[in-house]
Amino acid sequence: MISLSLAYLRDRPLTTALNVLLLAISVAMLVLLLQFGEQAKERFERDARGVDLVVGAKGSPLQLILSSVFHVDQPSGNVPFSSLDLLRRDPAVARAVPLALGDNFRGYRIVGTDQSFADLYNTEVAEGIRFDAPFEAVLGASVAAQTGARLGQRFVGSHGLELDEEGEQGHNHAPLKTVGILAPTGTVVDRLILTSYQTVWEVHGIAHDHDHEGGEGHARVEEESHDHSEHGEDHDHGESHGPQGSENALGSSAGESATPAILQAEGSGLEPELTALLVTYSNA
Asked: Where are the alpha helices (DSSP H) in 109-191?
């Protein structure tokens, strides 16, 4: 039987070669799909590790998870800033991480948060320091590598979460300064730019209590101090405000998303809000 099979294969060399080739391609594709699925699963698990609950605006739960944990979708809305203090006073909550989204730099999202975000992902600073003052930013490893950013350089974020080649939505009035670069983590943090949530508010002209720290107490609205009409300021995102000088070494190039959920109420006198809260339970 074996000799007959071998004779048959020798008698049809072209057919035999094609069958072997097709079989090899099929096996290779199957192995690649399995590998891709396993790597994607591991990546998702790393990005979501330590997050037991995501608090956000009413809407699609999937959209909330994708935008707040994996940073691949638009947020569905905002939640009151007082929610942060409410969660942190809950004895069942070990950690509540605030997120304030709304801008990007060259397609990389600028995330307003606090030091609890670094604790959640166990990040380490490879160069420089962590952000501490307003308008200070720490870049993820991939962001620094792709943009060529260096410590001390300033850059201008653009409104929205998606790249716009025309770059007409830059916040030229509020450049951010690079004070640190994170070590690679293999998580979504590598693709983010981190700053304080107070910075995100100030960039968008949202009044808040500058003395507020760590979610304690309640933010207050100081409409008079930020009334753009009285100060003659015009922060229309569609206008160019001119360069920020030689320190603006990175420039800006990104665009505005159409979603109304992003923090974009410049001069509107709205209460400070957060895009989402990442919660870790004490007994988890």
From this structure: 115-121, 141-147
Same domain flag for 27 and 114: no
Residue 109 belongs to what H/E stretch? strand 108-113
**189 burial level (CB within 10 Å; 0-12, 13-18, 19+):** buried
The pLDDT of residue 272: 86
Q: Is 259 exposed, middle or buried (0-12, 13-18, 19+ CB in 10 A)?
A: middle
**Chain centroid, CA 28 distance in Å:** 35
Does position 12 have pLDDT exceeding 80, yes or no? yes
pLDDT tens-digit series, residues 245-264 = 333 445 433 333 334 444 54
Residue 111: strand pairing partners:
194
pLDDT for the residue 165 = 60
Cβ neighbours, 10 Å, residue 17: 11
State how many domains the chain has. 2
Reading the block at residue 199, the tokens are 């910075």
CA pair distance 137, 197, nearest whole angstrom: 11
Find the domain containing 21 and state its range: 2-44
Give the closest residue to 96 by CA, choosing from 87, 105, 104. 87
pLDDT per residue over 52-87, tens digit each? 999 999 989 999 999 999 999 888 889 999 999 999
Task: Give the pLDDT confidence of 32-48 residue by residue, as tens digits.
Answer: 999 999 988 898 899 99
Bridge partners (DSSP) listed for residue 279:
53, 96
Nearest alpha carbon to residue 132 among 153, 117, 150, 114: 114
Beta bridge partners of 98: 277
Are both 14 and 95 inside the same structural domain? no
